[in-house]
Amino acid sequence: MMGTANFLTAAIEAASKPSLFILSDCEERYLLSSPMVGMSLLVGTCIAYCVINGAVVYFTPTVSHFGELERQACFVAAVMQLAAIMLELFTRQRLSKKTAWTQKAVFLVKLLSTLTNLALYQFPTPMVVDPVSLRPNSMLRWAEWTVLAFTMTFVVESIDSTSLYTPLTTATSQSVSTICGLFLPYCAPGFWWHFNCWLSFILYFYIFWRLYVKELQLRDYRRQLPSRSYALRKAELGLGLLRQCVCTWSIFVTIWTVDLLVRRFCGFKPETDWAFICDCVVDVIAKMLYSSVIQEKSDAEPILFGQERMQVIDDRMQVVWNDVSDVLIVSQAHNDATLLSFASPSIRSLLGAKHSEEWVVGVVHPRVHRCASATQLSLPCSSGSSSSSQLSMRAAECTHLPCTTLEEVVCYAWEHERFTCSLPSTRSDSDWRVCEVSGSCSEQGCVVVMRDITDRIKRQEAEREVLSQDVARQKDEEANSFTRHEVKNSVLAAITHCDRICEVHREAVHDGAIIDPAYEKSFSTMLKNMRSGLQQTLESVLSHAMAREVIHGLYVVSCEPVRIDEALQISQTAEAESRFPVRRSPPELPVVDIDPRLLLHIYRNAVSNACRYGKKGGLVTTEIDFKDDTLTLRVINLPGAGHEKLMAMRDASVVFNKGTRFHYDDVPAATARTSTGDGAWIMRKCAECMRGTCSIDFTPTRTVFELKCPATARLDESLLEDAHLGQEVWGFGVDDCEFQRFVLNNLFASVGVREEQIYISGEEASDLEYLADNLICFMRKLPPDAVVLAIIDENLDLPQPCQATVSGSYAVKLARERMPEDLERRLLAFVRSANDSANDQQLYAQRAHGFLRKEHGKATHASILRACACRFGTQCLRRAEAVAEQQSADVEQAEEHVVAMTELDKVMATLETWQSMSWNEVWRKLHRMKGIVTSAPVGGAVCNHMICEIESLRCLDALPSNFSLIWANLKALHETYKRLSIETAIDIVSPDKTPVKLCYSDDEATYEREDLTEEEDVTDEETTEEEKKTQ
C-alpha cells in the first residue's frame, strides 16, 4: 500500500515538472551534453576558420571579383542565411539545457557560412584556377568547407556517441578530405595532384563505412534493447542524420566531379561559373536547412521520448486508478484553507454510487489541522452497533484516529503517514467499516490509499475461533483418551467383579449355603440391575467419546460385517414390542458392512428424541428397509407438544443445524439447562461419516425421522461350509485342451452342478469361433428360472491346421453386450487362465464377472460358491449331501492324474519335430503344456520348474539358439512328472497298499484293481532291486 502511494506521488511530480523527470538521466551520457566538449568544439571551429582563411589570403596573391550572376548568388545565400539567424535569435525558445551545445554549434555553422557568402559578395577574394581541371576555385569557400565539414560531421556523430574517438575520427576524415581538395589548385599537374585527388576521395568514402557500421549497430540494438529504450531512439536518430550528411557531402562531390569532366574532356568553359552557383545553393541547403534539421531533431528527440514515457506512466496510472481495489485519493492544496481532492472509482465500495460521484469529479473541502496523538484518541462507536466497537478494538494494533467522514480522513492523511479509522458503511446504518489509511505527501499534493480491512479483521476473528476450536478439540481428545482408558477400564473391572459375584452367588445357591429363596431372588435381581447399569454407563461413555470425535472430524469409520438387528440392539421382550414395534423388510435382515457404533448412536438419539418430544407414552415405531445395498431406517412417533410450530417451518432441515432447539417451554428446567441442542446436528455428522443422509418430516399425524446410507450386503461365510449349488444352476465350460475339459467337468461336479446340466465344449473349431453365439443360444434354451455358471479359458487355440487364437474373455464380453438385460442377470462368467498378472486380472474383470486360476482346490470352490451367492442370492446354495462312496471321488481324482499325464504326452510328442516348426507354433504348444502342468494335481517343484522354463521364453520373437538344451531339460522334467503321477494315482486308489494293476500307454491310460496271484508276487528284495532300476 505504501508502494502504491509512493508511485502515485512520483507520477504527480513528473506531471508537474516533466523536464526533471524526462531528461535527468537520458542526455547526460552523450558527448555534446558535456560543456567541455561543446566549448572546445566552438572555440576550435572559430580558431580554425580564422587561421585557414588567413593562410589562404596570405598565400594566394591572386584576387578577383566574381561575375554579376555569381555575386548575386552569394548575396541571395547570405540574405537567406542571415534571415534564418535572426529568426533563430529572436523566436526560438531553448527547450533543454542538455542540448544547448548542439544548438550553439549549429548556430556557429550558420554564422560562419553567412560571413563567407558576404565576403564573397562584397570583396575580391583569392581565386586559383586548377591546372588540371581548368576549374576556377574560390579559396575562401574551400576554407569554409574545410572547417565546417569537421564541425557538422562531429555534431552528427556525437548525437548518439558517448566516446570522443568515433566522432573525432569521422570528422577529421571529412575535414582532411576537404583540405586535399583545397590543395589541388596549388599542385602542379602530375603525381602530387593525382595523389591529393585520390586521397581526398578515399577519406571521403570513409563516411560510407561509418554509415554501414551504424546500420549494423542499430540492428544489434533492436535485438537487444527494448523498443522504448532511449539508446535505441538515439541510435536511430544518429543513423538518419548520418544518411543526410552523406547525401549532402555527396552532392558537393558530384558537382565537383561533373564540372571537372565537362571542363577537362568536353572543353566547356562558360563565362558564368555555374558550378559555383550550384555550390552556393547546396551551401544554403547544407548550412541552413540541414543544420536546422540536426538542431530540430536533436531537440525534439528527448521531448518525444519523454512524451512516450509520460504516456506509459499515464497508462499505468489509468490502470492503477481505475482497477485497483483500494481507494486512491489525490489531494492538492487549493489554498491555505481548502483542499481539492479526487478519488478513484473504487470509492463506490465505501460510499456507494450515490455519494461517490462528487468525489470522482473532485471535492473542495476545508483543511482542518489535526494534531491528535495516539494517547489522546478515543475509538469511535455507534450506538446502534456493538460490532463497530469490537472491530475498532481489533484494529487498534495500529494508531486509530477518530475519523468518521472521508474529509477528515484526507485531512489526517496530510499529517499522519499511517493510521486506521472507522467509517459508516452504506450497506446498513448500523454497520461500520474499518479502513487502513496510508498517505504520501510532497510539494505537489498528498496521495492517500485507503484499504478496507474489515474482512481481514473478521478473518482474524474466525482464525481465533478456529484456534479456540482446536484448543477445545485437544481438550476433548485428552478427555476421550482418559475416558477410553481409565473410565472404560474401571467400568469393565466393575462389570467383571459383578459377574464374579454372580458366579459365587450361584455356587453358594447350588451348594445349599443360601436357604432363603426370597433373599436369593432379591440378591440376583440386584446384581442383574447393577450389571445392566454398569453396561449402560460404559456404552454412554463410549458413545459420548465417539460423538466428540465425530464433531471434530477425528473419528475413523470402521465398517465390519454385522447383522442389522444386532447392531441396533433391538429388545425382543413383549413389553418393548408393545411400545416400540419394529417392522423389517425383508423379514430376515442380512449381514451388512457398516459401522455399528455410528448406526447405534443415530438410532438411540432418534428414539430418545421421539420419546422426549413426541406424545407421552405413545408408540415409537421403527422401520428397517434393506434393498439394493441401501439401508433405510425410520423412527416414527406420534405428535407431541408444540407440533404445530414444527409443521409451520418452511425448511425442516434446520432441525439438524448446530445449537437448534424448539422446545424451550415444553421441557423440564433440568433438561433445558443441560441440553445444548446439538443432538440432531451430531446425528447428521454421524450420517455424513457413513456417507449417508438424514431427514425429518413433520405431518399432522406423525413425525418421521429417516436415515439412508449405503450398506453392502455381506455373505455369511458359514453358509459356504458343506454347501453345493442348487438344481437351478447349469454349467457351461469351454477349453481347447482335452485335459482341461476333463478338469472343468470335475470342477463343475465338485461345486454341486448335476452331470446332466453340465455342457463342456471346445473340441471343434466352431465351438471356439462362435463362442459368444453358442453361449447365448445355450442360455435361451434353459428354463426361465435357470442360472448359468460359465468357466471359459482365455487362450483358445483353434485346431490344426489353423494358427489363430480366440480370446475367451473377449467372447464373454461380446456375449454380455448382445444379451438382453434379464438374460445377462442370469449369467456368472469366469475367465480361467494361467496368466494371472495384475494387468491380466484387470482385463478379465472388465470383460467377465471374475477370474479363476488354473490351480483348483478348496479356495477355488469357495470362490465359485461365494460369487454365485453374491450374484444370484443365497437361495442358489444347498447343503451338500453325504457322499455315498468316498472311493468314487478317489477314483475320479486318480483318473484326473492319468488324463493329465496322457495329455502332456501328446503335447510332448508333437514338439519332437520342433526343428521344422515356426516359433509361434512352438510357443503355442509350450503354452498348452504350461496350462496342463498348472492344473496338474501333483508335481510340486517339478511342475514349478517346468513353468519357469516355459515362462523364460515368453518375450522372445524367434526360436532361441539354446532351445535344444531347454527341450532336453523339459523332457527330463516330463519323465519325472510321469513317474510321480503314476505313484500318486496308485496311492490314491490303494492307500492301504493293496496291489493294483495300472495300464498306461501314449494313447490311453486306465487302471484297475485286482488281487495278484502267488506266482506274480515278488519278494521285498526283488521289489527293492526293481525300484532301483526304475530310478
Describe the structure.
With 1031 residues, the chain is α+β, with helices and mostly antiparallel strands. Strands 6-5-4-9-8-7 form a six-stranded antiparallel sheet, with helices on both faces. The chain has a five-stranded mixed sheet with strand order 11-13-14-16-15. Strands 20-19-21-24-25 form a five-stranded parallel sheet, with helices on both faces. The C terminus is likely disordered. It is elongated, with a radius of gyration of 56 Å. The protein has 33 helices and 28 strands. It is 57% helix and 14% strand.
Please outline the helices and strands.
Blueprint lengths: L1 H15 L1 H5 L12 H25 L3 E2 L3 H24 L8 H23 L2 E5 L6 E3 H20 L6 H19 L7 H34 L5 H36 L8 H50 L3 E7 L4 E6 L4 H14 L1 E4 L20 H8 L11 H8 L4 E7 L7 E10 L4 E7 L1 H58 L5 H35 L8 E4 H5 L5 H6 L2 E4 L5 E4 L1 H18 L6 E8 L2 E8 L5 H5 L21 H6 L4 H11 L3 E6 L4 E8 L1 E3 L8 E3 L3 E6 L3 H13 L7 E4 L3 H5 L1 H10 L6 E7 L1 E3 L7 E3 H11 L2 H4 L2 E6 L5 H10 L2 E3 L5 H15 L4 E3 L6 H25 L8 H17 L5 H11 L11 H27 L6 E5 L4 E5 L10 H11 L1
Helix pairs in contact: 1-10, 3-5, 3-6, 4-5, 4-10, 5-6, 5-10, 6-7, 6-9, 7-8, 8-9, 9-10, 14-15, 18-21, 22-29, 24-25, 25-27, 29-30, 29-32, 30-31, 31-32
